[in-house]
Specification:
Mean pLDDT: 90
Structural class: alpha/beta
Order of helices and strands: HEEHEHEEEHEHE
CATH class: Alpha Beta
Number of helices: 5
Distance between the termini: 28 Å
Helix content: 25-40%
Largest sheet: 6 strands, mixed
Length: 190
């Protein structure tokens, strides 16, 4: 019971720090926004600014590394372009795993590759991105990696802004979504 209580306190602390980082870096904005899904929102979360703040970036990546070490079995990392790339690179580096670069579309010249680096058939790849709303924008990456022969069973994101359950997305695409925080944890949003 004491261990569970401390675990909850630890998770609450991490969430509190992440919210503080989002506010202090300007990554959390309020106004009228149109999301990639086409949905309208009164707030916007832009984690692309976090790498501009090295201490905050290191802290949030360290939270991710700790979580991933305890919860996910994988052999390589791929980040969804563009926002996920700095996070995925740091995670792979800290965990001493190979990092592969996924393109938004195949190169038009040379080897015309979709993925830079050689993923072995059956290799367990951890997909990394900054946040998730519906999951729709993650499908190109999941499908592209599976076409390369990778096993993609886990997606790590920092912020879950879906506001509803991702269970259907997970079930339909045979993937587990892991996050550090949900917008439901934001007292100013949820």
């Amino acid at each position: 019971m004491i261990l569970e209580k401390n675990k909850r306190k630890g998770n609450a602390y991490i969430k509190e720090i992440i919210i503080k980082i989002l506010k202090e870096t300007g990554a959390l904005k309020f106004g009228d926004f149109t999301l990639a899904s086409g949905e309208k929102s009164q707030y916007y979360i832009d984690l692309r600014v976090i790498p501009n703040f090295p201490e905050a970036f290191e802290k949030i990546v360290n939270f991710a590394v700790d979580y991933i070490k305890k919860n996910i079995d994988f052999e390589g990392v791929v980040a969804i372009p563009l926002a996920g790339i700095p996070f995925g690179t740091m995670i792979a580096n800290q965990l001493h795993k190979p990092f592969y670069i996924l393109r938004k579309e195949p190169k038009k010249h040379g080897l015309k590759k979709m993925v830079e680096g050689k993923i072995k058939k059956g290799q367990k790849i951890l997909l990394v991105d900054d946040l998730i709303s519906s999951g729709f924008s993650k499908l190109f990456a999941i499908n592209a990696l599976r076409e390369e022969g990778a096993k993609v069973k886990d997606l790590f994101i920092f912020v879950d802004r879906s506001m509803d359950n991702l269970a259907d997305f997970e079930k339909d695409h045979l993937i587990r979504v892991h996050s550090l925080i949900s917008v439901k944890d934001f007292h100013v949003i949820g």
